[in-house]
Amino acid sequence: MAEPHDVGPVSLAVRGLQHAFGLGEARKQVLFDIDLDIHAGELTVLMGASGSGKTTLLTLVAALRSVEQGSVRLLGQELCGASEAQRVQMRRQLGFIFQAHNLHESLSALQNVRLGLAVHGGEAAQAWAQAGRHLLAQLGLAERLHHVPAQLSGGQKQRVAIARALVGNPVVVLADEPTAALDRESALQVVHLLKALARERGTTVVMVTHDSKVLALADRIITMEQGRLVDDRRSAAGF
Ligand SMILES: Nc1ncnc2c1ncn2[C@@H]1O[C@H](COP(=O)(O)OP(=O)(O)OP(=O)(O)O)[C@@H](O)[C@H]1O
């Protein structure tokens, strides 16, 4: 079958995933029988109405929440039944872009980005500073490297948080509405950057969004409805 680009290996495999919140009478099942293969090197978008389970699914595959029923294999490792310590280990390979940016108020944009790196010191310190500057510049913040969060707008803070998530070269990037606070130009910078990482480094990018600017650039769009996957389509979007 013709594909718009070479599809990379499966980096995330979900089988028979169910999830419920609460116990007893308060128990509410929010995910039903999710089967899904996500490929490296692609920008995959998850969309669907509010409450359809997108964030729950994202946090389960991100090892942020424990998988109780079914199977989630992330980079070959089973998350169902994994200990908290194993999940912490797993999370080190991931880049998270979530809405609350949690920037350190007393640190500059560049210093905040540095917090995204597990390794510091020596050559690594020089390399990070270069990578951090480059990322911030790609996100339109070249003039804001030394500003602290109080001197940045909401959208600029969001972009600093995105640079922080990406500076450690994560193999998998998980993002929840990363462009919600951004104007059109900044949103496109973010999506182009994520797509370039997918293409050039084989990064797996999974993003929850309703943003039509993002949808236009996605390789694949998966739609959820009431806790189930109801549509899954590939796009021929060029880069
Ligand atoms: N911690 C929780 N405890 C109980 N119920 C929850 C919890 N988190 C989410 N839910 C419920 O699970 C369902 C799915 O929520 P989820 O946040 O995954 O949906 P979503 O598709 O991401 O929605 P939105 O687009 O509004 O963010 C909703 O009915 C929500 O109320």
Index terms:
31% helix, Rossmann fold, 27% strand, binds adenosine-5'-triphosphate, 239 residues
Describe this structure in words.
The chain has one domain: Rossmann fold (3-Layer(aba) Sandwich). The model has no long low-confidence stretch (mean pLDDT 89). The protein is 31% helix and 27% strand. It starts with 9 loop residues before the first strand and ends in a 5-residue tail after the last strand. It is globular. Strand 1 and strand 2 form a beta hairpin. It has a 6-stranded mixed β-sheet with strand order 6-7-8-3-9-10. Strands 2-1-4-5 form a 4-stranded antiparallel β-sheet, with helices on one face. The protein has 239 residues and is α/β, with parallel strands linked by helices. The site of adenosine-5'-triphosphate has 11 residues, from helix 1.
In short:
By secondary structure, this protein is of the alpha/beta class. Helix content is 31%, strand content 27%.
Stated plainly, the CATH topology is called Rossmann fold
Bound molecules: adenosine-5'-triphosphate
Assign a percent range to the helix content. Answer: 25-40%
Radius of gyration: 18 Å
Which class of secondary structure composition applies to the elements? alpha/beta
Structural domain tally: 1
Let me know the CATH homologous superfamily. P-loop containing nucleotide triphosphate hydrolases
Can you tell me the overall shape?
Answer: globular
Beta-strand content bin: 25-35%
Q: Helix count?
A: 7
Any idea what the CATH architecture is? 3-Layer(aba) Sandwich
Order of helices and strands: EEEHEEHEHHHEHEHEE
The termini sit apart by 21 Å
Mean pLDDT: 89
Q: CATH class, anyone?
A: Alpha Beta
What ranges have pLDDT less than 50 throughout 5 or more consecutive residues?
none
